[in-house]
Structure prediction request, 191 residues.
Amino acid sequence: MLNLVLFGPPGAGKGTQSQFIVEKYGILQISTGDLLRAEVAQQTKLGLEAKVFMNAGNLVPDEVLIGMVANKIDAHKDSKGFIFDGFPRTEVQAKALDEMFKERNLQISVMIALEVDNEELTKRILERGKVSGRADDQNEDLVRQRVQEYETKTRPVANYYQAQNKFQSISGIGEMQEIFANICSILDKYI
Ligand code: AMP
Prediction:
C-alpha cells in the first residue's frame, strides 16, 4: 500500500498534484478542505460548525477533522492507498493519524512537502479565487491569515515526519509536469 501525506501551504499545488497521483497510482485522495466544503454546502451540523472557522481563515478543531478522516478511511477499506491532502495540519492530527493507522495495520509511507514562498502563494490563491468561487480564496486578508495559520500550526508537522525519517521536500515552483515527475521519482521507491 502507498500512503502519502502531501504537505505544503495553501496554494502550493497539493490539489493539482493529487489529481495526477490519483491517475497514475490509483490511490484515493482525501482532501479535508474538499470534505469540509461538502459538509458546508450540505449545511450539516459539522458543516455549520466548521464554516465559522473556515470563513475566518482559521483551522477547524482537531476532533472534527480526525473523526471525518477516520470515517473516510473506513468507507474505502479496499483502496490501494491514500493521499492525504491538507491533513494532518497540526501535530495532534498527525499523532491521531498514526493511531488510526496503527489500529488498522496501516502505515504512512512518506510525506512529500511542496515548497513555495509566501508571496507566490498569495498571488496564486487570489488568481485561483477568480475561478474557484471560494470566498476564502478571494480576500487578501483571509489568504494571509491562512498562510499565517500554516506557518504557526502546520509547518511544525514536518518535524514530526522528519523524526520518523519519512520527510521529503521538493520545489513547488515551475512546470506542473516537472513537479509531478519529481514526486513520482520519490513515490516509485515506495511501490
Ligand atoms: P484547504 O482547501 O485545504 O485550503 O482548506 C480550506 C479550509 O478548511 C482551511 O482554511 C481550514 O479552515 C479548513 N481545513 C482543511 N483541512 C483542515 C485540517 N486538516 N485541519 C483544520 N482545518 C482544516
About this structure: Residues 10, 32-33, 36, 53-54, 58-60, 65, 86-87, 89, 93, 146 surround adenosine monophosphate (CB under 6 Å). The chain has nine helices and five strands. The chain has a mean pLDDT of 97.
